[in-house]
C-alpha cells in the first residue's frame, strides 16, 4: 500500500542544515508552484548540492555578487539564475544565513497540473519529460528571475512552497558526479553531490562538462 503524500509545508529549520544533508532529503518532497491558471505540483526526483565557498562548482565560490546574492540569505529561499542566455534554473538555499549553500532542483515528476506544464513544454514527448532536467523543470513550472528570492517557507500565499510529500528511504537514493560541472567541481571522486531516486524515469541523463566553442 502506497502512503498518501503528506501535504504539510516543510519548516525553515529543514533547510537550516548542511547542504549534503538537505539535498538527498529533498527527494520525494513536493514542490508546489501556484500560478494564476492554477497550481502545479512536482515530486522531486533529482537534485545537486552546492557548498558555497568550499565548492569550486558553486556560483558562490568566488564570493558574493548581485547574481548570487540570494544564496547568502536565509535558508528556505529560492535562488533562480539565468544560463546560456536562454534558460532559468531553480535552487533552494540552505544552511546558516551567510554561508551561500544551495540545492539545484534537477528533475521531477509532475503529479498535479500536468495540463498547465504541457502548455509550457510543447517539445516534451511525454509527461515524464516535462521536468526532466533543471531548465525543463523551471520552464514547466513557469519559474524565472522574477521569483528569485521567494521565501518558500512563507505563508500559503507564496508562489512556491515545499511540502513533506513522501520522503525516500536511503536505499532508494543514488549519488554521483554533478552534471556539466567543470574541473574539480565535476569530479565524482571529490564531489559526488548529485542525488537521485533509483530507477525513476524522470531523472535526467548524466552528461560530463563539455567546453563551449566560441563561434568564429
Task: Describe the fold and architecture.
The structure is a single chain. With 216 residues, this protein is an alpha+beta fold. The chain is built from 4 helices and 9 strands. Strands 1, 2, 3, 4, 5, 6, 7, 8 and 9 form a 9-stranded antiparallel beta sheet that branches. It starts with 5 loop residues before the first strand and ends in a 19-residue tail after the last strand. The model has no long low-confidence stretch (mean pLDDT 93).
List the helices and strands and how they pair.
Layout: E1 6-9, H1 12-15, H2 19-25, E2 30-35, E3 38-51, E4 78-83, E5 87-94, E6 101-112, H3 114-120, H4 134-141, E7 160-165, E8 173-176, E9 194-197
Antiparallel strand pairs: 1-7, 2-3, 2-7, 3-6, 3-9, 4-5, 5-6, 8-9
Mean pLDDT across all amino acids:
93
Termini Cα gap: 59 Å
Q: How much is the radius of gyration in Å? A: 16 Å
- Strand residue content: 25-35%
Q: How many separate helices?
A: 4
Element-by-element helix/strand order: EHHEEEEEHHEEE
What characterizes the major β-sheet?
Answer: 9 strands, antiparallel
| Secondary-structure-derived class | alpha+beta
Uncertain runs with pLDDT below 50, 5 residues or more?
Answer: none
**Could you tell me the number of beta strands?**
9
Keywords: DNA damage, DNA repair, Glycosidase, Hydrolase
Protein name: Putative 3-methyladenine DNA glycosylase
Family: Belongs to the DNA glycosylase MPG family.
Pfam families: Pur_DNA_glyco
